[in-house]
Amino acid sequence: MDRIALTAGALYVIVLLRAGGTFAVGWLAGAGARRSRFAERISSAKFRRAERAIQRWGAPVVAVSFLTVGFQTAANFLAGSMRMPLRRYLPALFVGGAAWALIYATAGLGVLAVLGRLFAERTALGVSAVAVLLAVCGVVVYRRRRAALPSGDTVDEES
Question: Most CB atoms within 10 A, among 24, 93, 138, 141?
Answer without folding.
Answer: 93
